[in-house]
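INFO worker-7 received task bundle
INFO bundle size: 2
INFO processing item 0
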Amino acid sequence: MALAKKIERKLRGWMVVILRLFLRPETLEVTEESLSAGQRVLVVRHDDRLGNIILMTPLISALKTNLPGVHLAVLVGSVYGDILRGNPHIDEFLLFDKRAFIRNPLRFMGFVWRLRRGGYDLAVDASHMHSFSLMNALLTLLSGAWIRLGFDRGESRLFHNVCVPCCSENVHETEILLGLADYIGKGDGRHSMKVVLNPEERAQAR
């Protein structure tokens, strides 16, 4: 396992080197009005860790509140992504199966084709503030969204054209992620972690 992780880190490093040959940092001058004008928004966090998916739910709620009438899509890892199925703020799901895509690159190409057909105006990279995720940033770029927003760290400027300054480390992860929503438009700030059961799950729990 340690060897596999080492190889993966090496491959990521080489991928960044190659992408630098083709990508150039791009800064988009946007106003709060232009950020909040998007009607199709994509939130990206391909993470397969259950806790991180739940920590993202206040951000989802805030985006839906701050952008009334918006179509909100969420791209999450396939292992626990279904836990968000009952969330009333989410209009569209994209489940990312990293292992399947590694085994069959053609499936990944099909996924990217579907992603680009989404016609998203704004893509939000919701990966952790202090840990740059190459795959998350790449998926945000491949979405084809005109505005690509994420935290300013690592190689993010190659992929995002709106970079949000990092805040203090002494802040809960939910508050950190809410900073992305606040950058788009100020809301009421009352958003908590939530898992909503769908009718079938409620019936099973009885």
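INFO item 0 finished
INFO processing item 1
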Amino acid sequence: MYRFPVTALRGLSSTIFTFKNGAGFSVVELLVVISLMGIITGAYLWNAGSFRQGVAITRAGQAMAFALRDAESRAMSVHADSYVNPQTFPSGYGIFFENSQPQRYILFFDGGASPNGLYDSPTEHITTYTLPNYLRIKELQIDPAGSPSPISNSLTVVYRRPLPTTEVRVNGTLSPATNFGIVLESENGNYKKTIQAWITGQIAVQ
């Protein structure tokens, strides 16, 4: 085995392991750098979460508008109910919203011998749409295009042939309103979307 001379080792150690005065980081400097990294990382994560909620609420608004359009489309394709009168279309499809369930809404079929324009669970249930945990239905409104009036309990919208006819029921009672709205809000409160619909069939996400 080869052995280094002692004199060589002495010179090597003095060359490698001797630091200049002031080289490296002090404890204070290291703590400052770590703190700055923590602040930058936290800001990034917060902005990323906020951005995610903004994208999600846009998608949720579009999905809700599509659900309303889907109910209308289903109603237009329904057959005449022979058990009532020939060429009559009492059956319809609708969407049910309820303030006590701010993260869901329901597509249902209003049919049978005596359709009432209301969601009669569970026999009329078709699909339950669920919002992400960080989104909610903040408010149900009547006449958001003019003088918005909040709805205290529930909103039921039913579409029927042949016009189509759009029935709007507020808290279970038929309303003469010509338009209605559903306000979505993100968990952090920074984002809102209003899905506004008219009985003429127009739907807008604002």
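INFO item 1 finished
INFO post-check item 1: Residues 27-76 form the longest helix (50 residues).
INFO post-check item 1: The two ends are 82 Å apart (CA to CA).
INFO worker-7 idle
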